[in-house]
Amino acid sequence: MSHFPLRVGLIGAGGITHAHLPAWQELGATVTVFALAGAETLAEHYPIRIVGSAQELFEHSDIVDICTPTPTHREYAEAALLAGKDVICEKPIALTRADADAIGDLARRLGRRVYPAQVVRFFPEYALAKQAVDSGSIGRMAVSRFTRIGEYPHWAPWFSDEALSGGIVMDQMIHDIDIARWISGEVSRVYAVRSASRAGDRVSAQVTLTHKNGALSYVTGVWGAPGTTFTTGFSLAGTLGVLTHDTSADSSVALNAGTTAPQSGMRPDTSLVESPYLTELREFAAACTGGPEPRVLLEDGARAVELAEAANLSIRLKRPVSVAPGKPASIVPGNSGKEEE
């Protein structure tokens, strides 16, 4: 493994690459891109090398950064590992826990690293919240609430196919599911509900997580009308106080009903701070070149997938689901879930 400047092989040319590529540039990496479509458009904005196959990309890479649709993550991760590369993969690390475990098993056998890009852990407000809770500033955690609101991802049809994306829970809410576990500890039970417009292009869901220590987390996600402003927030209530954050906080009344203007509301504006994607990729790159492990590991990404899977199962069954680590998800006996609604 060479040290800086790193040779990064980036697979994919979708929207998230516009967050990763500037970060790699800032880190001084040389970037080679393989994509089934869109690489030439990327080359109009970034100094990249374009290649025609994943195997050719591996020849020019020390680290492989996977920025492709979720169903392809396992295929590309395993190919990169077999080529002797460490891997960074956009969330979710895979569509199922079984696929995530297969990636992890292969990485361990080959002595390689795989890091899931659960970028919200690198946003300063969430990192500071974690520090505050760990320091005991608000006492023992009791109830947490997380919200994430954005427009329906109409710009890529695969998002709307739950067999490919896992829907709003797996694709969007997995961020806050991961944060809830990071802050309040391991989860023992999941209950979830979901509603959608008749056309299916407006979706909301709520996931209730019961933590092993008795704390509760309520995670709400919305895919709204075109032009819906991207907003996030949290409220962390402990035995000594409450910690809150809201990107839309304003003393005035605000209407968030969408607009007819085409937008892409998948990511918040980070123009006034260091990009969390830069912070994230810096930690991952350091770990891949002999530095300390980053704040999010493959097991964290795999467990987030497992909890999102359990939430989708709960939605289908309309029942709470037990999610003890290392055991298959199972229905909570004698509990309809109605008391958790």
How are the SSEs ordered, and which strands pair?
Layout: E1 7-11, H1 17-26, E2 30-34, H2 39-43, E3 49-50, H3 54-59, E4 63-66, H4 73-82, E5 86-90, H5 97-110, E6 114-117, H6 124-134, E7 141-151, H7 162-165, H8 167-184, E8 187-196, E9 203-211, E10 216-224, E11 231-238, E12 242-246, H9 276-288, H10 298-317, E13 321-322, E14 330-331
Parallel strand pairs: 1-2, 1-4, 2-3, 4-5, 5-6, 7-10
Antiparallel strand pairs: 7-11, 8-9, 8-13, 9-10, 11-12, 13-14
Outline the structure in words.
This protein has 341 residues and is an alpha/beta fold. The protein folds into two domains: 111 residues, 3-Layer(aba) Sandwich (Rossmann fold); 164 residues, Dihydrodipicolinate Reductase, domain 2 (2-Layer Sandwich). Helix content is 33%, strand content 24%. The chain is built from ten helices and 14 strands. The relative contact order is 0.15. About 4% of the residues have low confidence.
CATH architecture of the largest domain: 2-Layer Sandwich
Shape: globular
Instruction: Round the mean pLDDT to the nearest integer and report it.
Output: 91
List low-confidence stretches: 251-257, 259-265
CATH class of the largest domain: Alpha Beta
Instruction: Quote the beta fraction.
Output: 15-25%
Secondary-structure content class: alpha/beta
Which value, in Å, is the CA radius of gyration? 20 Å
